[in-house]
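Figure 2 data, in text form.
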Amino acid sequence: MKSRSRLLAGTLSCLLVACGSGTVERGPTEEMAEVMAEFARLGIFSGTVLVAEGGEIVYAEAFGEADKDRGIANNLETRYNIGSIGKTITGVSIMQLVEQGKVALDAPVSTYLEDFPYGDAITIHHLLSHTSGMFNYMAHPEYRARMPELREIDDWLPLVYDQQLVFEPPGSRFAYSNSGIVTLGAVIEQVTGMPYEDYIRENILDPAGMDSTGLDYPEDEVPNRALGYTRSVSGESFIPAAGNVPPASADGGIETTVGDLLAFDRALYGDTLLSESSKQKMYTPNLEDYGYCWRVAVDNGRRSVGHGGGTSGVSAMFSRFPDDDVTIIVLSNYTEAAMQPARALEAIYFGDEYDPPKPPLGEVVYRELKNGPDAVTVGVLDALVEKGGYEIRGPFELNMLGYELLGEGETEMAIAVFELNLSRFPDDPNCYDSLAEAHLTAGDLGRAIEFYRKALEIDPGFENSKRMLEQLKAEEDEASG
């Protein structure tokens, strides 16, 4: 791979290269600045970005506001919630304990946690690689009610342990599991006798020089903290995400800066945190190209080791290219705002093609739907996708748009979107389930029952449709009794 370090060395302020023909060519950092400015102008990015080679900053800039009500701008010292990128810190912590002989990768989790309810088949390796079969505690019916109380690792375990495995035997499949990583946090506490936060502070954050990083909660006074926002489906307003953001724990939610993440990146290159043999194990892909709390991939011939993070008002990408010693960090306080800029910055740096900044497909569809719920047919949708260079990778994308419309009270539009989704994915039970919920919201009980039943025809075990039909029947019996 040809390094661009010489090309980039002099471009920290809008490099212009005069060509022999008399034309003017943009330098990479100028192109990065122009592209990021366009993301911000479109209202689809707010946050801070950083590109570095060999630990030296090539490009760094902040956009948008950390606090819209008070008009506080984001800056290079702004602290963002980085969501699941925090899993990488848990992974490094476990590998440190493996090096010290306190934890064994092939040991059953029950070796360290006596009350672990899933027997002896699940190992530390399974938790690190998301192949344990454990589920996501956020799906527990009591999770949202308990969110304000979740602060210590032990607060999470009753939710984690109260869920069935989603597959067996362990190791046979990949299933991303927040519950599994919280369990690793419990293992860290058990074998070290230290609270999780104290352990990572003493063994990772302080050694790496990450002075602006920590597990922060809504009630904490945090300087330079970015508040999260979700852009409305119309693109015309921003909804505060406070109250919807999961509390910080071993599986994510740490708050940090682009500078601190770069410090973490540099510490991972030497032996400050781990030996080379431990890092090699950690970066070895298992199922679905996932190592030990790190995603490992090869795109365009480049190996990347990193992680993303996202939830309501949180979006972050931490992309490391160890063979080139290049780091790209994108932290945003908007929902689902980091991926597109991260891909663009990577492409610009390495000289690849990339899609220009553009509004979300949902916003484009919404503009058409304003002409009436019947304005977007399958053909119209296909044309919008092709013209805008969009890709509908699965049913979740239109499904998300439908629920956004429901949340904004646009029930007829939501029904239209769910029907479009069903036309594309007629064998997905969740498409029927979502359409049923929209009809239920509209007060059409008959159509709701019809689509809940169709979901169960495709998948008799589809839990939400089964539960909703039971609930509707119980309400009908109570009304008639």
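Caption note: Residues 463-480 form the longest helix (18 residues).
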